[in-house]
Design a protein that fits this description.
single chain, 189 residues, mainly alpha, Jann2411-like fold, 44% helix
Length: 189
Amino acid sequence: MMTAEWVFDGGRASVDLVNTLRDRKRGGRELLVDPAALGEWLTVAGLLERKAKVTARHLEEALQLRESADRLLRAAAAGDRPKATDVKTVNVLAAAVPPAPPQLRVDSDGRVRLRSFAPADPVAAALAALATDAIELAVEAAPVRICAATDCGLRFVDRSPKRNRQWCSMARCGNRAKARAHYARGGSL
């Protein structure tokens, strides 16, 4: 059973993590309130199996990663120099679980398959994947923007052709803004 309304409109997993702090323009509303909420978000995001144990330390690292990624991605989008502490945070978390090198296994029937390894700490591996995603996004050309709605603040990757997207989601903030503008002009249904 989901306990929070997760939104995955950011365009990348690291941006979706940033969006777990809602209503930033009005002071913020925390969705990752405890380890169980982090576990739920990671599971819904497809980064974790439901049975993995999420600890208070994982939550602390996720919150640090979220805020460092937010500042890092906004600095990169603006062409500004990111804070050294934010760079260090994402680098340390990305390196916490090095990816396993690909290895082959031969089944009893002689078929060659890829051997997969389960990380010792799947939550740390999920956070490492999120940190890696933030690093990759910071060096890409697509900017991370903040929704133009006055009551939102969600971040999203702007991949629009002209790089002029304004809303985190047309289904939510975009439609509300267009409806308000329509009624302000004296329009009706």
